[in-house]
Amino acid sequence: AGPTGEAGPLRFAVARLDPATGRIEASVPIGEPRGNYFELLQFIDHPIAAGEGAVWALRQPYLLHIDPVHSDVRTDDIQVGFGWGSVETGFDSVWLQNGIDLYRINPATDELETFLTLSTSSGLINYFFEIGDDALWVGSSDGALVRIDPATKAKDQVRLEAFDGLAVTRDRVWLSDILAGEFVGLHAETMEPVGDPIAVSGTVDQVVAAGEMLWVLDKSVGVVSRIDVAAGRSTGSERVGDDATDLFVGLGSVWVGDRDGTLYRIDTRTLEVAEFEVPAEILGVAVDERAETLWLYLGESTASG
């Protein structure tokens, strides 16, 4: 479908894409954000999440609740303010790390609660948030790592060396250290280092865990690398676009959006790359595994004329 085709307008919208053909099946306009939207999204790891019966798009200062069945915005009054972070789903909730606050949203009522305040400091510290199989994980670039039980809010915390990225596999937590050029693995229960560090080259702008693999996006050179944590090494890499924005793993593929309107699909086994063109900036990618759907967060139109 074109920019104003059957799927509806594709400028500042959330769109559902057929993961097999790359065809846009439906789109929901979300309105033009305030201010420089792309500059704001530079500080957001994942501006869109799919799950818990809906699609959730961060258009600061709001989190939009999108009904995937009726393809409309159910509510746009979940006010979350401005900040850096990520939106994810899990444990029957929607989770939003926005600045120093970790919010929990009830997907049935859209009620928002402050689940955890990460810090009261105004220092230049980056925060990282991930959902594991049975816990939430929050880290900060000054070396703090916290495991949180989402039901009881019980916390276990350790103090480590500084790190700049966080990912969670089945029984390991992986911390990236760009200066050292490595990932360090911690046991998920003891939170103690285990095994040898795994070397990584380039910048770790995003890291996503899936099974026993870490998928790393280096935006500066437009490369996605696959790291086999069981083997303890990189097992291949593939080139994507020059202006990659977001990486997500799901439906047997790695999906990378680019600001030029290209969606890259990388097969997780063969690393074969396919490209789909969308006439708008792709600012975020999300997969709903249960519904087997793929969603894109779209920005300004890239169509000429």
Written overview of the protein:
This protein is mainly beta. It is 2% helix and 53% strand. The protein is built from one helix and 28 strands. It is globular and about 50 Å long.
Keywords:
four-stranded antiparallel sheet; mainly beta; single chain; disordered N terminus; 305 residues; globular; 53% strand; 2% helix
What kind of sheet is the major sheet? 4 strands, antiparallel
Shape: globular
Strand order of the largest sheet: 2-1-28-27
Helix content: under 10%
Question: How many individual β-strands?
Answer: 28
Distance between the termini: 16 Å
Roughly what is the average pLDDT, rounded to an integer?
89
Radius of gyration: 18 Å
Order of helices and strands: EEHEEEEEEEEEEEEEEEEEEEEEEEEEE
Output the number of helix runs. 1
Helix/strand/pairing category: mainly beta
Low-confidence stretches: 1-7
Beta-strand content estimate? over 45%
Describe the SSE topology.
Layout: E1 13-17, E2 24-29, H1 37-41, E3 48-51, E4 54-59, E5 62-67, E6 72-79, E7 85-90, E8 93-98, E9 101-105, E10 112-117, E11 127-131, E12 136-140, E13 144-148, E14 155-159, E15 165-168, E16 172-177, E17 182-187, E18 198-199, E19 206-210, E20 213-218, E21 223-228, E22 233-239, E23 244-250, E24 253-258, E25 262-267, E26 273-277, E27 280-288, E28 293-301
Antiparallel strand pairs: 1-2, 1-28, 3-4, 4-5, 5-6, 7-8, 8-9, 9-10, 11-12, 12-13, 13-14, 15-16, 16-17, 17-18, 19-20, 20-21, 21-22, 23-24, 24-25, 25-26, 27-28
